[in-house]
Amino acid sequence: MAQTRTEDFRLADGRALRLTYAEPDRVTRGGLVVLHEARGITEAVLAMVAGLAAEGWLIVVPHLYEGGSAEVDHAEARDKVSELSGESVLAATDIAFAWLAEHKVNLDRIGVIGFELGGAVALVVAASRTIGAAVTVAGGGIIEPLSAGLPPLVEVAADLRVPWLGLYRTEGDDITEQQVEKLRDAAATASVATDVVRFAFETGGFEAWQRALNWFDAHLR
């Protein structure tokens, strides 16, 4: 498993954020910003980081809120998510992009990927920033936003600026088929490549992982 490190990163203009990162053992193919779930940097997030680093990507995880460096309980997670806004998550990812730029990764070779809360944030970023590609895994907040400061995803999907892939389970989440279809329809009106795939939780995990890797392979060059 790739070794992760955490540091407080500060830009010349004074902006600062805590970041967790992992470097590949071989030549860097590009950079990926991994957006953590509501409970912070969980074992599932670290597994995603390790897996992506093993594929040759330089990985950075911006801490979207204070305390994001460790897993928190569900009640605390709800409180932290409720404080997020579109401006705050974009500010955090902008600093992560700057960190990758300092490591010689150009914007067209940068992607974002997130699960659950991070998946929703990935779409918000993809609708507001021009990078290489984005992947959402089980991102909620499609019709009803995850916080008062975040937009419903269906309202920003048409504004997507970068190729975006949405991966949603067929069961096990609070996200309904109707919600996913509405998001698919909204994303299809964007001027970039989009795709929405539903997969079975028990048997489709490998397929979803491969689709995410293939999406980045196709668009980050």
What distinguishing features does this structure have?
35% helix, AB_hydrolase_fold, alpha/beta, 221 residues, Rossmann fold, eight-stranded mixed sheet, globular
What does this structure look like?
- Helices cover 35% and strands 22% of the residues.
- The chain is of the alpha/beta class.
- The protein has one domain (4-219): 3-Layer(aba) Sandwich (Rossmann fold), CATH 3.40.50.
- An eight-stranded mixed β-sheet has the order 1-2-4-3-5-6-7-8, with helices on both faces.
- Strand 3, helix 1 and strand 4 form a beta-alpha-beta unit.
- It is globular and about 45 Å long.
- One of its GO terms (molecular function) is hydrolase activity.
- InterPro entries: AB_hydrolase_fold, Dienelactn_hydro, Dienelactone_hydrolase-like.
- Pfam families: DLH (PF01738).
- Residues 21-210 form the Dienelactone hydrolase domain.
- This is Carboxymethylenebutenolidase.
